[in-house]
Amino acid sequence: MYLFHLKPAFPLRNFCKIKKRYTKALDCWKCHKAIECLKEKVFCPVCSAIQPVEGRNYFDYLGLLPGFDVDLSLLKMNFLKLQSVIHPDKFSKHSQKEKEISENCSRYLNEAYKTLTEPLERAKYLLTLKGEPLNNKNAMGSRDFLAEMMELNELIVTSNDSKELKILLDEVETKIQLIGREFKSSIETNELKKAKEAVFKLTFYYRLKAGLSSKMADNE
């Protein structure tokens, strides 16, 4: 029998009780026994069969509660633990169904880790979990904000002054931190309109940051 448990970001004795607020109990596809405590969501605690990812979210799968602030060291540790036991190579002698589930789980795990590692993608995913995904139709931004972004982008393109670019980069990173805190507060209080506005702004500032970093690298 597989013995595998992720390290949760909260006391283990509270793990099952807390997780039930965010996820549903599932039945094992193979033995049909209920898997009520989702810390055992990777393998069935009764028959040891690997379990599909359906009905879970990225946070749940990686042993975290949904939230904008993430312990990246814990995230990486849980990712590596999962990766070591669900890799398709581990199921070469198992049934075809278990091989397929393993492949899907491995792909899902990589997507989950990549998304939760990046603050902007993490913020977008939290909106999706709230049923309010950000897209071109509901994206928003004032004319003044968009005009400011265009001016900053033009300044980045035309400037070759390394000191000026470094000052701009510091300002952009500070702005990202401030808007990130605004998003965290909004998503926690379920003010989804404000949360969307914050993510919309973050998208532009991360683009500016990437442009600045690239320009500074070219000037070296």
Task: Describe the overall structure.
This protein has 220 residues and is mainly alpha-helical. Among the domains are: 55-130, DnaJ domain (Helix Hairpins), CATH 1.10.287.110; 143-218, Up-down Bundle (Monooxygenase). It contains eight helices and two strands, in the order αββααααααα. The chain has a two-stranded antiparallel sheet. The model is unreliable at 9-23 (pLDDT under 50).
The unreliable regions are 9-23
Please tell me the CATH architecture of the domain at 55-130 by its name: Orthogonal Bundle
User: How would you describe the shape?
Assistant: elongated
Q: Tell me, what is the CATH class of the domain at 55-130?
A: Mainly Alpha
Mean pLDDT: 86
Work out the strand percent: under 5%
Count of helical stretches: 8
Spatial ordering of strands, largest sheet: 1-2
Identify the CATH homologous superfamily of the domain at 55-130.
DnaJ domain
Structural class: mainly alpha
Ends apart, CA distance between termini: 55 Å
* CATH fold-level name of the domain at 55-130: Helix Hairpins
In total, the number of strands is 2
- Work out the helicity level: 55-70%
Tell me the Rg in angstroms: 21 Å
Largest sheet: 2 strands, antiparallel
**N to C succession of SSEs:** HEEHHHHHHH
InterPro entries: DnaJ_domain, HscB, HscB_C_sf, HscB_oligo_C, J_dom_sf
GO molecular function: ATPase activator activity; protein-folding chaperone binding
Family: Belongs to the HscB family.
Keywords: Chaperone
